[in-house]
Amino acid sequence: MTKVRFFSFWLLLTMSMATVVFHSCEAVPQEEEMDPEQPKDPVLPSPGTEVTINGVTWATRNVAAPGTFAADFHSFGMYYQWNKKTAWSTENPLTNTDGGTTWNTTPSTENSWAKANDPCPAGWRVPTRNEINTLLDTVKVRKDWTKVNNVKGWMQTDKISGKSLFLPAAGKRLYNNGMLDLVGTNGFYWSSVRRNSEDIYYLYFSSFGIIEYSCTGIFAHSIRCVKE
């Protein structure tokens, strides 16, 4: 009987610990995964340059070159390393908006994204961690893996207003060499907030689901701005 109780105690402890593990960006999440599915029938997001989802007003397009938005809502825009204003190409060859082709492996040491380095257009900024997490609210926001204009991504729809926001699966550039990774299948969107001395919070998604994640800011991810 004692052995059975001891085993049961450690089983419960292990299960409890499994629910609080914070993922590294080096691994694909497992416990949050939903059943994989094909993208749903295309549904266009709300028109215009901005849309309010769960109380936060978002730009309807990704950031392209510093101070500009992408041409349309399904464009990838450009990639940014955390707390840096230099934009990197979302297609090969590897180039940046300063005319460089050498990947930057030096991380920022700031505690949050500095205003001077914010690539969002005037009146906009990189979202905080809390603002990123408003999109994960299952009570107030409906989330659908979908395909729009042949681009896969997640449609976030405010359940009260019915207005929606499309986040394309733009992929990223790897931290060690700047190579393209998971373009067209996964999305990575920075927050302005550091998790600890090494990692930064961001929004991550694939066809399996959409969650909060963290990793080194040397990766280059997409940016979706919020209104100031």
- What percent of the residues sit in helical stretches (DSSP H or I)? 10-25%
Q: Provide the residue-averaged pLDDT.
A: 85
N- and C-termini, Cα separation: 62 Å
Class from secondary-structure proportions: mainly beta
- Record field, number of beta strands: 15
| Order of helix and strand elements from N to C terminus | HEEEEEHEEEEEEEEEE
- Give the percentage of residues in beta strands: 25-35%
The number of helical elements comes to 2
> Quaternary status of these chains?
single chain
Question: Low-confidence stretches at least 5 residues in length (pLDDT < 50)?
Answer: 1-24, 26-39
Question: Which term fits the overall shape?
Answer: globular
Computed CA radius of gyration, to the nearest angstrom: 19 Å
Number of domains: 1
The description of the largest β-sheet is:
3 strands, antiparallel
User: What is the topology, as strand order, of the major beta sheet?
Assistant: 4-3-14
